[in-house]
Amino acid sequence: MAAPKKGRRQSAPGKPGRSLVFILIALVALTGGMFLSGNTTPRLGIDLAGGTSITLQAKDEPGQKKSAINPTNMNTAVSIINNRVNGLGVSEAEVQTQGDDNIIVNIPKGTNEKQAREQVGTTAQLYFRPVVTVASGEPTPEPSASSSGKGKDKGKDTADPDKATEQGDGKGDDKASPTASPTSQGRAVTDGLKADATPTPKASDKGSEKDKAAPTPTPSADPATAALQKKFTELDCTDKAQRGKVGDGIKPSEQTIACGKNSAGQWEKYVLGPAELNGKDVDDAKATINQQSGAWVVNMEFTGSGSKKFSKTTSKLSQQQQPMNQFAIVLDGEVASAPSVNTTLSSNAEISGSFTQESAQDLANILSYGALPLTFHEQSVTTVSPALGGEQLHAGLIAGAIGLALVIIYLVVYYRGLSLIAIASLLVSAALTYTLMTLLGPAISFTLNLPAVCGAIVAIGITADSFIVFFERVRDEVREGRTLRPAVERAWPRARRTILVSDFVSFLAAAVLFIVTVGKVQGFAFTLGLTTLLDVVVVFFFTKPLMTLMARKKFFANGHKWSGLDPKRLGAKPPLRRTRRATGSAAGPVDPKEA
């Protein structure tokens, strides 16, 4: 008997039962892990469950020679933002980098959107700067001859109208809001560290005197000082655009100007000296209720080095006159509070004022977790209501069910009995996909969003395509006259190569899409890549072994008309090995064929 041709050696059947047991054990383990972890459903994204998604883009500060946007700073920012959001009591928020300079913050439903945006978007660059002078930040002064006298009554007695103006500002310079929004005011009160009496609505009148005395800094031939004085005179603190740019490019070691609101809700502008302390010198901050006044306050504790700096600073300020004895707490370029200092302090301070519980906790939260290493700007904010998210999830599930039904109908009509193997393989693939998506939620913060659902629907076609390739290879072998069992083993090597190449191309496309895109598109790419890998696992460890076992059953082996492998229906040729040829030299060389 002649040897078979090279390259046509049929592969050994192996032991298909082992592969099926392996896939069964994997399914049981994943399902058990899912229930043991307490997570029985995939974590839904903002677009399906409802909530707020904030995209932040990192920006370099003006004048920086070297970009500060690098993986180290981005990861640090993610950690700080995550701590801030968790400080709000949000248990399932997700903070992750996207690309080189974006951070995505997904906050689930039930969270105060405004509060969350303030927490994640606030850089929290905190500095303690001595006050040089103060003036009204209102654009239109209200002239009043008696207002300056009233201002003097609120401060220390003096006959100098200019000093009276400065004293009046010292009372109402307190602001406690951690952002640029004009909310609550604050004063520092810790034994000797206390602001003067709370200003009355007459503070708006004294603003006219301040405006007249705006060019308080002594004229100097120094161009930098002259430029600073000009900016101070022209600054309108009611203009949000001016407030946002007033401190751009200013280093902590340089003088600057800033805006802030007093407790009466009026804007004031300041000339501030170089920073004496920064946010890194604050060890902890807590929002508490003052037992004497019953008002919300923020208590700050300084580090060891911070206490020394604070003691040295308050010692110098306590010997100055108003407003030179004030220090401004500057948060992200805006004066949050500017209390007066009457004695030397060291380890702690208290910021008080018209705080609400929320605003006090927000400020304490930001001070506790420190400043972001980069400046971020909101690139986009998307809010989805739970009702809309539920509708989108419902629509996605319907689309998936329709796609799956169409695939099953096609398999049943065209492949008949073989469709049972394909449907079983689809169910195994679906089970593996579901359990993995559920477990990846708490493990790597994977969320099932609408694009991810689309990726799963596309994967139905990719998985079914692998079965079709294998089935068609088997049918080709049957058409050549081979019986089913050897046909399955001969068809597998060629089908395997085709399936691997096809899945590799799909996985490569998903990987490239995941790397070069940001946002929700990555959910589509991740799901597509995951299901492509699972397709390979299912085909190798379930579909092929199951097909090998089914080939031993009479229903398939004998080519029943409903098996999908009926030789007559496939147009199979009679086996060539059964053909008898004449013997002798006239018959020519024999070309043996094997079934």
TrEMBL record:
The keyword Membrane applies. It is a multi-pass membrane protein. Residues 74-131 form the Protein translocase subunit SecDF P1 domain. It is found in: Cell membrane. Part of the Sec protein translocase complex. Interacts with the SecYEG preprotein conducting channel. SecDF uses the proton motive force (PMF) to complete protein translocation after the ATP-dependent function of SecA. Forms a complex with SecF. Part of the essential Sec protein translocation apparatus which comprises SecA, SecYEG and auxiliary proteins SecDF. Other proteins may also be involved. This is Protein translocase subunit SecD. The gene is secD.
